[in-house]
Design brief:
about 550 residues, alpha/beta, 16 helices
Length: about 550
């Protein structure tokens, strides 16, 4: 039996934040700073320590000014305008220029705020400047790190500690949000007024003045993913059921270099930024054949280059002593960097590769593209507002327009912080404003003929085979038919994955040309002119209202 709704007090507004990665944690902290009397509830379906952010290695992209008395050349060769330009190029013509400008211009303040919260970024040898690294598709070194290659873990640890130390934050761990509670709000429009919660202790409703989705992505759609098991698209599913607009769902970024072992832990792009090379089974570099920037090409290009080689050379023995039997025909060769540098710059990765039996200072290690980041999601303005009043979204679950068709490396952590701060400010201001998107009503049930049961593994292999790095119209059509035949499961996470898979495949089918991370092998050249604009969808019953 569902317990009664828990209402807020008449004196203070209540905000419920769903998700405990960097976007959720930062939203909570920003809300508490802006409105110390506000009631903030943080809901996490696992412990606060588990999130996509925890596994982020590459760093956070930010143009920050040189420190007083520091090296002027360290930050003077970069600019916010250059960061914006790089973001737009990576987005393949579909990034929102305004959103990208908001992101990049807010970087310095975002970094300063993190430092005030106790985050300590790596420094140069003299200690005067933040150490700036370079990653693929960035025109200048602007990537900040914590602990070399433990940026995500360091951010989560610091922000989680700050949230736990705040007595004004109510934390609900191991609690699942089953749906967004809504009430009618002017002209028949529905407003978010709380969340329906489920835990081992039972089910209950929690009222709220604002609900913020910060639930991360949906990497579990695919067989190979860098995301943890909890990345099941919960936020997109909740928002869709609540009638919020979604967009750019066909664009799913695959990290080019996940270690080809169970769990597929990623090997940071920063390793290639430092000079490591992708090589084939003969030890020969190959990325120059795919892009002038070679190993520093945009992620979608690198992932396709690897996928092409995996298809062509599958089963060919590779270099090094660990090639019997061969698992892959593509390797990351970091041997030229030397053991001392690898141990100092990438301590976590050195430990990781060693745990899996590799000496990456002596031999190339096997890699495979793995689902990493969903560029699409719940449509928001630059303050996190969705098309449903009272409902906000930040972080990977949100489609701000920054990433377009392909995310620039290390922009995601920055996006989470910058837009979490803006979302908190919008909520604290009390200003009621709802963005309007040019949506197409979509009735997924119209084509459904659910007769087949399925498992998460079934879904993952279907999506990897037909909606992964390399796609075709025929393959996507086959995936759509299979997905339509799947019965909605009782398991909430699997049900959310099924909904997200159907949305992604529908969007991919309706973008016939290649663009960014959406690569149609049967239309590889892409359109002659600019890409078709982003497609915005809403549940058919909502679009008809």
């Amino acid at each position: 039996m569902r317990r009664p709704i828990h209402g807020g007090t008449t004196q203070h507004r209540r905000t419920v934040v769903v998700g405990a990665g960097i976007a959720g944690l930062q939203t909570v902290l920003a809300l508490r700073r802006l409105d110390p009397d506000a009631e903030v509830v943080l809901v996490s379906k696992t412990s606060l320590a588990e999130s996509n952010t925890r596994y982020a290695q590459g760093g956070i992209a930010a143009v920050v000014p040189p420190a007083a008395g520091g090296n002027e050349a360290a930050g003077g060769q970069d600019s916010v305008a250059a960061h914006v330009a790089d973001t737009l190029v990576a987005g393949a013509g579909l990034s929102d220029a305004t959103a990208a400008a908001v992101l990049c211009a807010g970087a310095a303040d975002a970094i300063a705020g993190l430092e005030r919260d106790g985050v300590v970024f790596d420094r140069t040898e003299d200690g005067r400047e933040p150490a700036r690294g370079r990653e693929a598709a960035h025109s200048a070194p602007r990537i900040l790190h914590l602990g070399g290659d433990a940026t995500g873990a360091g951010l989560v640890a610091t922000l989680t500690a700050a949230v736990r130390d705040d007595p004004g934050v109510r934390i609900l761990e191991d609690v699942v949000v089953a749906r967004i509670l809504q009430s009618r709000h002017g002209h028949g429009q529905r407003r978010a007024v709380g969340v329906a919660l489920v835990s081992g202790a039972g089910a209950w409703d929690l009222a709220a003045d604002a609900v913020v989705l910060a639930t991360g992505g949906a990497g579990q759609l695919f067989a190979h993913t860098t995301n943890p098991a909890i990345a099941t698209g919960d936020g997109v599913a909740l928002a869709w059921q609540a009638g919020a607009a979604v967009a750019d769902l066909e664009f799913f970024q695959f990290h080019p270099t996940a270690l080809d072992v169970p769990g597929h832990p990623l090997i940071s792009e920063a390793v290639r930024g430092e000079g490591a090379l992708l090589v084939d089974a003969d030890g020969q570099p190959f990325m120059r054949h795919h892009h002038p920037d070679g190993d520093l090409a945009p992620r979608d290009v690198v992932s396709r280059g690897i996928a092409t080689h995996l298809m062509r050379d599958a089963g060919v023995p590779g270099p090094g002593p660990l090639d019997d039997p061969p698992r892959t025909a593509v390797y990351l060769d970091a041997t030229a960097l030397g053991a001392p540098f690898l141990a100092r710059r990438f301590p976590s990765l050195s430990a990781l590769t060693s745990r899996h039996g590799f000496d990456w200072a002596a031999h190339p290690v096997p890699v495979v593209p793995a689902a990493h980041y969903w560029m699409g999601g719940v449509c928001t303005d630059t303050d996190g507002r969705t098309s449903v009043p009272g409902l906000f979204a930040v972080g990977e679950v949100a489609r701000t327009g920054v990433h377009g068709a392909n995310r620039l490396a290390s922009n995601s952590l920055l996006e989470a912080v910058v837009f979490a701060n803006r979302c908190a400010a919008a909520i604290a201001s009390g200003v009621q404003r709802t963005p309007v998107f040019d949506v197409e009503p979509l009735d997924l049930d119209a084509t459904a003929a659910p007769t087949q049961s399925f498992t998460r593994r079934d879904l993952q292999h279907l999506m990897s085979d037909h909606a992964g790095v390399l796609r075709t119209g025929a393959g996507l059509g086959l995936a759509a038919k299979h997905l339509a035949s799947y019965r909605a499961p009782d398991d909430a996470e699997l049900a959310n994955l099924l909904l997200c898979a159907r949305l992604l495949v529908h969007a991919a089918l309706h973008r016939p040309d290649s663009c960014g991370a959406h690569f149609r092998a049967d239309r590889a050249a892409g359109p002659e002119g600019p890409p078709a604009p982003s497609m915005f969808y809403v549940r058919a019953t909502e679009g008809a209202a």
